[in-house]
């Protein structure tokens, strides 16, 4: 039903399989609700998407037909039901397993060189290489955080291990490493590794565009700062050294203060997608009429 009312366009012959012109649906045409139409309780109802609910099932429940799934998506400015819709618990766990593979290492301050994707990572001693470490997946220099994959069965890292990275550009001799660091913390399940530091601030109103409401502000904290629950002081100011920072506490002392893991972050992102607003069913007929009129205009 959604594309049935879209205008058709004639594409020139160069795009046709046989060289002739073709008629196609103008899928680039867009119509949406303005913010004025999304405010006022008479226009919408708040809704929390259930674990296995889809735009089609909600439309069938609220509007009497799954064909009105586009109203559900459009009213919430969602145009991709695959990436902008909350995942079920089962799909979310599969997503996490696929995205956060391998293990995550946190380095001591003083990392040198680079750790690029697909670099080879090895443990070393003073006399040479001591074993295969894996392949670099991603390196975050702000957190001194390295995720690696392909770690051999039974192979383990320990605090104070010296690791080096190698690639074809730098060379494969012991002295031709492109990066070097000392391991201080190991997280064997990368989904449980630090994503960022965060604290909750005061509650404020009108946090969304659809109907207002209230929530507690979430404030990201600078990892290279000292935070006492009230005041955040950056490293280099007020006598704060690296040893006073949130990142130091996490990396060296396994502190969990203000820590949000990758799993925490992804869970919150997915759960936030569950909070939607739905057009009041009493306005459905009017919206459909206006949609047909606007989308078909040339």
Shape: elongated
Poorly predicted parts:
203-214
- DSSP strand content: 25-35%
The span between the termini is: 19 Å
Helix/strand/pairing class, anyone?
alpha+beta
Strand order of the largest sheet: 4-8-7-6-9-10
| Mean pLDDT metric | 82
> How do the SSEs run, as a string of H and E?
EEEHHHEEEEEEEEEEEHEHEH
| Helical residue percent band | 10-25%
Number of strands: 16
Count of individual domains: 3
> What Rg, in angstroms, do the CA atoms define?
26 Å
The helix count comes to: 6
Describe the biggest sheet?
6 strands, antiparallel, barrel
Write up what this structure looks like.
The longest helix is centred in the C-terminal third of the chain and has 12 residues, at 284-295. Residues 203-214 have low confidence and may be disordered. A hairpin with a 4-residue loop joins strand 13 and strand 14. By secondary structure, the protein is of the alpha+beta class. It is elongated and about 75 Å long. It has six helices and 16 strands. The protein folds into three domains: 3-86 and 275-295, no CATH class; 99-192; 194-263, no CATH class.
Could you outline the blueprint of secondary structure elements for this entry?
Elements (H helix, E strand, L loop, with lengths): L7 E4 L10 E4 L18 E5 L6 H9 L5 H7 L13 H11 L3 E5 L4 E2 L6 E5 L4 E12 L4 E5 L12 E5 L12 E9 L6 E12 L8 E8 L3 E3 L4 E3 L11 H8 L5 E3 H11 L2 E5 L4 H12 L3
Antiparallel strand pairs: 1-2, 3-16, 4-8, 4-10, 5-10, 6-7, 6-9, 7-8, 9-10, 11-12, 11-15, 13-14
Helix pairs in contact: 1-2
